[in-house]
Amino acid sequence: MLAAESAKLLKQKHDKPFLLVTFLTNPHDICYQAIRELASSKLERDLLAGAVVEVSTMEEAMRLLEGLDEDECLRTVCPPVPANFDVQRDEAAPVRELQAQRELKRRARAEWGVREWRMHRWTYAQLTKLVDSQIGQVFDTLEEAGIADSTVIIFTSDGSRRTGDRHAAWFIETDSNGESLYVRQAYFVGQFDPCKSLKTTFKAEINEAAMTVFRVWQNAPIDRQIQMFKRPRNCATLQGMSEAGFVLAHPPIVEAVLDIECDLPPTQELNDLEHPAFAQFRDNYPNIQRQFVQEYELRAAAGVPPDFSSQPGQPKVASLQFLQEDKKQLVQVRAQGFSFNRLAPYAGFDEYSEEIRRRWEQYCTIAAPIQVKTINLRYINRIPLPTEDGHVELEEYLKVAPRVPGEQELTLSGFLQQYAVVEGKTGHRANIVLTPQRLDQGKIPIILDIAASADEKGDPQDWQRIMTTIRALRRLKNDIFQWSLTDKCLELFR
Questions:
Q1: Side-chain-facing half-sphere of 304: CA atoms under 13 Å
Q2: Which residues does residue 446 pair with via DSSP β-bridges, in sequence order?
């Protein structure tokens, strides 16, 4: 509405220079999503009652794509939660105290799971698109009125009242390309050193000389803008917490496996679960395979030939596997619990997390697990290393490359490295296997197999607790992956 009114004013004839200020509130209407669902105080209820327009805008943004139900929308279009979504186990006391000051924040944190926060991010994205279109409406009107070239556009961020100033920064657009709003000049106001503030916020060293890129009158290439940030002081920790700085365009994952080991009812037979499991999973997993186990016994005694025999009866079903049509994804109902497998191409854990939750809940309905015992997360990576004349310098690609004695006389033709590690701060474990395969199209494939596990005895219905552990294992796996490979190796997949 304000953008439309601003456009009307811009179309009018003006004989003198003028100042037009347009306040666009979104995406702030996102606040009403939590207030509407969790309001408990009189202040929050009164705020909700007086925000008819804001709530209506928010509800419009919450609408799902036509033809998609909520489950399908979550699976295909809703943004994933960030890698550092879960509450840290060693969270600082002041953070907890700050959360406790607002009952609404505390409840949202405690009661909302991945599903609610992904819908929240979807709504936020739609409100951002809305304000983007409103800004575009003002830009288009400037062009139509023929005054764009004689107009200075100042785009200000939300106020930061804690500093004693109304605004944290002023951003000035001076060279519009007619399509997007680019920052050409940024002025950080207030009593604080902007470089110092940025260092604190981003936990990174700031290249102060490179910040002059924001004080020119022409747009700078994006690579020059990125130069403002040097390598973070604690790169490994930051990358483990968030994947924003660690994104591989072509991850070398050939298979990802999640196993949730459970205590099951003692009289339960896996064969009895086949039909109810197929009824639950056949919508997306129409193919079924069975894995069997046959027990054998070997008896050996002094002076008597060994006696080798199988146990009486038919082989037992060890696993019921339900596969998609392309055989790239499957759900397993096992004698020890539940598994979710994904083969390449692998789009990222957040793309599958909602599907995993849904299938786990169906599994709980079918198998009635008594408690969760252990959670295992395994990623098998196949890393093809380029060679020269069939040889490769492993140290250029692997931080834990094998060494052999007498390197001048001996040539390494194969290796198998295996490590078992424990993470000090969580007690989570990981097994790491590194081994080569045969030369393939001029490249030597290296298998990096990382299996992380955690003892997690708990309620099978407490999905939020289970997901917290899964994400912690994923972070551990990501850290091990980066610690194992050199930057030159990682560049192969960026």
A1: 8
A2: 383, 436
The letter for the amino acid at 331 is V
Model confidence over 352-376: pLDDT tens digits? 988 999 999 999 999 999 999 999 9
Residue 433's H or E segment, with its range, is: strand 429-436
* Both structure tokens of 344: 């390449």
Q: What is the dihedral of CA 37, 39, 40, 46, to 10 degrees?
A: -140
| pTM for the full predicted model | 0.54
- Give me 64's structure tokens: 């799902």
pLDDT, tens digit (0-9, with 9 covering 90-100), for 389-419: 878 889 999 998 888 887 778 888 889 999 9
* Separation of alpha carbons 48 and 28, rounded Å: 14
Q: How far apart are CA 474 and CA 430, in angstroms?
A: 11
- 430: which DSSP letter? E
What the block records as the tokens of 320 is 């019921």
Task: Identify the three-state secondary structure at position 314.
Answer: coil
CA distance 239 to 231: 11
Q: What's the rounded Cα separation, in Å, for the pair 469 and 476?
A: 11
Question: Are residues 170 and 154 in contact, defined by beta-carbon separation less than 8 angstroms?
Answer: yes
Kindly state the helix (H) or strand (E) to which residue 481 belongs, with its residue range. Answer: helix 463-484
Q: From the CB of residue 445, how many other CB atoms can be counted at a distance below 10 Å?
A: 18
CA 485 to chain centre: 21
Task: Report the C-alpha gap between 481 and 484 in whole angstroms.
Answer: 5
